[in-house]
DNA sequence: CTCGATCATATGGTATACCATGATACCATC
DNA sequence: GATGGTATCATGGTATACCATATGATCGAG
């Protein structure tokens, strides 16, 4: 891996081939994540064709993709929006704890000035939005925070997995983030993770990260049981 | 949840709707995993139609699914079999170490007589096959061993992730398992994990599991670098 | 001889048509 | 009135047709 190669690699055209499928995929995923399509709701192909204004081929391929992502289940009479019980959510929080703490630790090992600056910037942004109590934006910024961490740690496959898992518990995340307690403690915990990264302390960073997720999981559990 | 309910639940028809898509998906996945389709090879839709004897709709939906699974990349002129470099493989081994050691620990906490019996049975089978040096079967049995562990630990989502990751490094796994050293040390390490589970010792089980995977990763690294 | 332009073909993207199956509602018969 | 059968319709599965584009080859001009 010499300089020339990386220079050439950086020349790669990053044009996202904006195909109908890609657009429809994003729309559908957003619709499911945002709760516009409720869990358990049937996804009738022809209806979706009308709603999205595309043909069935597109819809079907999108559904296949979402099925593989775990956002859609195939019942016996067709695809439905996957629903999430506490057993599944608990597992997802556990997996996140494992993967995110590992990424955070590796990030703390490898973090340079540049990475730290980027993280600090995102955290400042989070503080501002948090004061205004805007859940969707907070979720966005939190995502960016972790995205930087996973990238700095070189854990791009783990990031892919975590992103996918997060979309499966997105409703829970929105609920936990909009809890008033959380809007105070959440940023504080992220700051703690950042502080450990800043002084390149992997163990402390991993520990803070695990606590952060454990707190979110506890909150999610109470909310989920209240919902029943 | 009383007895009658579970009895009634067990009556549920478990017929897997054997659709052309499902068959084609399995075939294609096997073909990629087994290396019949080499990494980087173009997957031409119409060619696959002829080879599998199905229509393009089926092939395309299957490709979407495999794309979401990470077995297929979409290049600018169409889908190709995803290839795996050491950077990616390393990450996958790390993720496996995290998820499998966690599952093994939870399994050690929860394991009852029945689970232990099932694990012992699989290990005996592994010993027999290992002596005959049959790599594909060894891989199969190893997979079953972990499947039992993840099921006993209640980590079914993590199992899904691990299965998918394993298919992405299947070639590496075949190579590492067919190494003579490994056919001796591999079963021994699984035995060690099992011993820890049998005496319900989560920490020892997790430790043995991490070592098992670290050994496989080292072997994979040397093989991968030799290949270049 | 080389460079370029144009045409042909291969390939993926999209839409639509047809078929098999399963669900539901209504009707007839016991 | 209840039960069983039948017909209709909704829905997913499959195949195919059409279009846009990119790639490669061939032919002509400089």
Strand and helix map with partners:
Two copies of one chain form a homodimer.
Chain A: H1 3-10, H2 20-33, H3 45-52, H4 56-69, E1 72-75, E2 78-81, H5 86-110, H6 113-132, H7 135-153, H8 156-168, H9 170-178, H10 180-198, H11 202-227
Helix pairs in contact in A: 2-4, 3-4, 5-7, 5-8, 5-10, 5-11, 6-7, 6-10, 7-9, 9-11, 10-11
The structure holds a DNA duplex (30 and 30 nucleotides).
Query: What's the gyration radius of chain A in Å?
Result: 19 Å
Number of domains of chain A: 2
Most extensive interface: A-B, 29 and 29 residues
Question: Quick one: CATH class of the largest domain in chain A?
Answer: Mainly Alpha
Number of strands of chain A: 2
What oligomeric state is this?
homodimer
CATH topology of the largest domain in chain A, by name, is Four Helix Bundle (Hemerythrin (Met), subunit A)
Q: How would you characterize this protein structure?
A:
2 copies of one chain form a homodimer. With 228 residues, chain A is mostly helical. Chain A folds into 2 domains: 20-81, Arc Repressor Mutant, subunit A, CATH 1.10.10.10; 86-227, GntR ligand-binding domain-like (Four Helix Bundle (Hemerythrin (Met), subunit A)), CATH 1.20.120. Helix content of chain A is 77%, strand content 4%. A two-stranded antiparallel ribbon of chain A has the order 1-2. In chain A, helix 5 runs antiparallel to helix 11, helix 6 packs antiparallel against helix 7 and helix 10 runs antiparallel to helix 11. Chain A is elongated and about 55 Å long. The interface between A and B is medium-sized, with 29 and 29 residues.
């Amino acid at each position: 891996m010499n300089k020339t190669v990386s220079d050439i690699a950086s020349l790669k055209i990053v044009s996202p081939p904006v195909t109908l499928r890609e657009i429809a995929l994003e729309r559908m995923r957003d619709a499911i994540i945002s709760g516009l399509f409720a869990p358990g709701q049937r996804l009738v192909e022809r209806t979706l064709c009308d709603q999205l204004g595309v043909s069935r081929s597109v819809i079907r391929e999108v559904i296949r993709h979402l099925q593989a992502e775990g956002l859609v289940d195939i019942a016996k009479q067709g695809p439905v929006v996957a629903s999430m019980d506490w057993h599944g959510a608990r597992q997802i929080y556990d997996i996140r704890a494992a993967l995110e703490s590992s990424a955070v630790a590796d990030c703390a090992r490898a973090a340079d000035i540049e990475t730290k600056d980027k993280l600090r910037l995102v955290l400042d942004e989070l503080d501002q939005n948090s004061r205004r109590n805007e859940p969707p934006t907070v979720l966005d910024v939190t995502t960016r925070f972790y995205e930087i961490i996973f990238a700095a740690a070189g854990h791009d496959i783990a990031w892919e997995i975590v992103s996918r898992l997060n979309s499966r518990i997105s409703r829970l995340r929105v609920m936990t983030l909009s809890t008033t307690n959380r809007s105070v403690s959440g940023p504080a915990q992220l700051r703690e993770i950042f502080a450990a990264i800043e002084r390149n302390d992997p163990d402390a960073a991993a520990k803070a990260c695990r606590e952060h997720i454990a707190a979110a999981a506890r909150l999610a559990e109470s909310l989920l049981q209240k919902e029943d």
